[in-house]
């Protein structure tokens, strides 16, 4: 249910459980961590999903069994954030719950116009993953972070763009072409130059 395509240094990771809104089981999350921790050799990485939802977060049954508070979420976002290559979350639809962490850890986020963003930890009685509030606040500021995490607001793709949570809104039929275009220079670059530029970027 996690697909990995490797093409000339470009790693494309696809969540493929559209009948369950790409909600993540423990096995899926472990596979994502495994890929992210092995992706140091990638020249660029794209995360996306099948269907009309990027990810609804933890599978409900798995969440009740403890996945909602697993340290795998933090391992995943930490591994993505630590990658020296350019990382892009190509959000094919709504992003919810703990799945926010992997998108927040990416360098760039692009989304289809229909996407919505929410992280209802307050309502569900969980804490967010430790690094998520800081990463979110770095992008959209503390007040808007509280709007999502504490007020439980679901925001639209346009609001996410206006806030700075996503970098571009892209029609669904152009999403992956746009993601590949964004990483094309990094994939083609001299690895030393790419690493040097990455090291200079905050």
SSE blueprint and pairings:
Layout: E1 2-7, E2 10-15, H1 26-38, E3 44-49, E4 53-55, H2 60-64, H3 72-82, E5 86-91, E6 94-96, H4 100-105, E7 108-111, E8 116-118, H5 121-124, H6 132-140, H7 142-149, E9 155-156, H8 157-163, E10 168-169, H9 175-188, H10 191-200
Parallel strand pairs: 2-3, 3-5, 4-6, 5-7, 6-8, 7-10
Antiparallel strand pairs: 1-2, 8-9
Helix pairs in contact: 1-3, 6-7
Outline of the structure:
Helix content is 43%, strand content 20%. By secondary structure, it is an alpha/beta fold.
Secondary-structure-derived class: alpha/beta
Distance between the termini: 33 Å
CATH superfamily: 2-enoyl-CoA Hydratase, Chain A, domain 1
Strand content: 15-25%
Tally the structural domains: 1
**Assigned CATH class:** Alpha Beta
Number of helices: 10
Which strands sit side by side, in order, in the main sheet? 1-2-3-5-7-10
- Radius of gyration equals 16 Å
Give the SSE string.
EEHEEHHEEHEEHHHEHEHH
The gross shape turns out to be globular
Q: Tell me the CATH topology.
A: 2-enoyl-CoA Hydratase, Chain A, domain 1
């Amino acid at each position: 249910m996690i697909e990995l395509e490797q093409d000339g240094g470009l790693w494309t990771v696809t969540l493929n459980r559209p009948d369950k809104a790409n909600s993540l089981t423990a096995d899926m999350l472990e596979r994502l961590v495994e890929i992210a921790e092995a992706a140091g050799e990638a020249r660029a990485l794209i995360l996306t999903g099948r269907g009309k939802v990027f990810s609804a977060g933890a599978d409900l049954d798995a969440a009740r069994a403890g996945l909602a508070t697993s340290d795998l979420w933090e391992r995943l976002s930490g591994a993505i954030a630590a990658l020296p290559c350019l990382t892009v979350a190509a959000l094919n639809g709504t992003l919810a719950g703990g799945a926010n962490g992997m998108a927040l850890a990416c360098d760039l986020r692009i989304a289809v116009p229909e996407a919505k963003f929410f992280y209802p930890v307050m309502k569900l009685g969980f804490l967010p993953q430790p690094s998520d509030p800081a990463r979110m606040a770095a992008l959209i500021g503390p007040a808007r972070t509280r709007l999502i995490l504490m007020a439980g607001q679901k925001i639209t793709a346009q609001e996410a763009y206006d806030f700075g949570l996503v970098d571009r809104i892209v029609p669904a039929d152009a999403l992956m072409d746009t993601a590949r275009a964004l990483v094309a220079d990094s994939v083609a670059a001299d690895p030393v130059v790419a690493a040097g530029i990455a090291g200079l970027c905050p």
